[in-house]
Amino acid sequence: MTAPLHKARPAGAGRALPDTQQGMRRRNLARVMHTVSAAGTLSRAAVASRIGLTRAAVSTLVEELIRTGLLEELGPERPGRVGRPGSALAVSGRGPAGIGAEVGVDHLAVCAVDLRGEVRSTATRHGTNRGRAVQPVVDELRELVRGVVAEAERAGLWPAGLAVAVPGLVARDARTVVRAPNLDWRDTDLTGLLDVPFPLSVGNEANFGALAELWLGEGTPRDFLHVSAEIGIGAAVVVDGGLLHGTRGFAGELGHVPVRPDGPECPCGSRGCLEQYAGEEAVLRAAGLGPGADRVGLLAERAAAGDADVRRALRDAGTALGVALTGAVNLLDPESVVLGGALAALAPWLLPSLESELDRRTAGPACPVAVSRLGSEGPLLGAAHSVVRAVLDDPGVVAERGEPRMGPGSSL
Ligand SMILES: [Zn+2]
């Protein structure tokens, strides 16, 4: 196991590189990668003019990025133009890939995303992980990772790192799940259990969902609250384009904000938490439905068909969400609130009461509420893209480290 590619910040939020000649070279490699990535295709001359370096300096950097498989040459650009044509550069669709994984309460999922942001391989396994020991779950996850990596390798990719999204509190070391109540995991260091021959980081699923919204959503602001739900309710606070982690990495536990101080007991030890009113199980109970497969789909189907009990349960959940979010909005003054995960699918029936509470209770003008288009894929995509972003942010590290060896002796 090598050192994590991106330690406490799986966000790829831009690390400070050392202020040395070597640091300068790595920063310039990153500028070239980001410039080409943002443009799609670009000539060396265009890169040079955009980042303000000489053509010769850019050529040296580009050669290194081509040699290490991060950029590729597409051939002459606009051959009809007068003068010597520049060769178009693009981010490579081969080479390093980000592997994302998600441990859900009811599923496991893995995907590989290339440096262009395209999903190249996915695998999912449905079935409850609640009440299971950690190791068998991790073993199954490793099997899925192995299959996804094998498929990515057949397409000429190699894993630059693995980021795992979990529904729980993750320590700032980005490897230890301190507490995941719905999985019953406690103080679990996944790097030891999920031994893979490339860098691994672990993060809270709500945080990865928010990052996916930040990086892949349309017109997402740089200051927003992201609220999502699976069994629990997760939230993440994005400030100036980066995650607010909190002292221990636990910021964003909106699900345990009290809505009614004397309400029902919550597994966290408190009473009347938001999760007791707007969590999936609470809503199902209020709607008179039992647990089962695709519960969110069932709620949406019944609500769309006009089921009065389901609509009332969702309206009440929206009210509870509005009350809890008012506190967060008054405190943080975000540009918007984004509903993701299961909440996005139920938004038509949650939003009226949620927005009315926010309107009524917010001190300033009401904060707009948007609905994520990423749906339940958000955390998985956010995890994979966090690895991709880390490569774009510091391509020099990947170039120096090179491909992990995965021969017969490999632990994967
Ligand atoms: Zn609670």
Automatic annotation (TrEMBL):
<dbReference type="InterPro" id="IPR036388">
    <property type="entry name" value="WH-like_DNA-bd_sf"/>
</dbReference>
<dbReference type="InterPro" id="IPR043129">
    <property type="entry name" value="ATPase_NBD"/>
</dbReference>
<dbReference type="InterPro" id="IPR000600">
    <property type="entry name" value="ROK"/>
</dbReference>
<dbReference type="InterPro" id="IPR036390">
    <property type="entry name" value="WH_DNA-bd_sf"/>
</dbReference>
<dbReference type="Pfam" id="PF00480">
    <property type="entry name" value="ROK"/>
</dbReference>
<protein>
    <submittedName>
        <fullName>Xylose repressor</fullName>
    </submittedName>
</protein>
<comment type="similarity">
    <text>Belongs to the ROK (NagC/XylR) family.</text>
</comment>
<feature type="region of interest" description="Disordered">
    <location>
        <begin position="1"/>
        <end position="23"/>
    </location>
</feature>
